[in-house]
Sequence to fold (276 residues):
Amino acid sequence: MVNRKDLDPDASPQAAFGARLRSLREERGLSQVELGIPMGYSGTHISGVETGRKFPTLRLARRADAALGTGDMFEREWREMNQGSLLEGFPEYVEHEGQAVELRLFDIGIVPGLLQTPEYARCLANSKARRGAITYEQADELVAFLAERQATLARPRPPMMLVVMDESCIRRQVGGPGTMGAQLDRLLEFAELPNTVLQIAPFEIGEQRALYLPTNLLTLPDMTVVAYAESQMRGYLERDSAAVFPLLTAYHQLQAESLAQSATVDMIREVRKGYP
Fold:
């Protein structure tokens, strides 16, 4: 075939996605244009995905599954590929997150993802894209992925959520004043929910802050506890109780040094006055 580009599925997860899409399309005797019509994409766009020039989106993956009758194969492949750009260990953590009966979260500098507004999350994702760390299409998918995580926890019997945030989370402005003001409002709303506890670890506790890295602790339905912690370069999911229990102890110590929820709400309201 003239101008047919050979594909190397081992080159990258994106290349593997494109090669699989081409293979299944050709098995069904479809041209790129013919596949693109029910998917809502041009033949040129399908070609770009197959050859790796265009990064596949979650929307495209789902439509490929529908058009080719592949169940959720392309969606699962997309998630594996897209989450591969996330910190190591995080995709596995998210699987447990959606099943947890209790979540204990601690973050520094940035409001925890599960409490972020779409606008706040968008600012963070777009910042990564501007720095060249990800593409803008990947930024779109990260925001959509976070929305899915948040929706998973909004179930009829939601998990208990205990959140401690370093004071820097509410002091550091993300986005414009409007974005930050709305985010602070979201935190105040979160604190009013019956299944939540929100605390600020104030700057003044100094060396008494028992955790120095973002840390999440999940209690699963069988009452086992798993921990997830991040550095700048990687994340790690820990199941061994010998390693998890010291983190749980440190979290309890952190809670003891942090502001009570009522004082936390007062601090957030005070900071909120600085935004329109």
Notes: Strands lie at 102-107, 160-166, 196-201, 215-219, 225-230, 235-238. The chain has a mean pLDDT of 90. The chain has two domains: 13-83, 90-272. The chain has twelve helices and six strands.
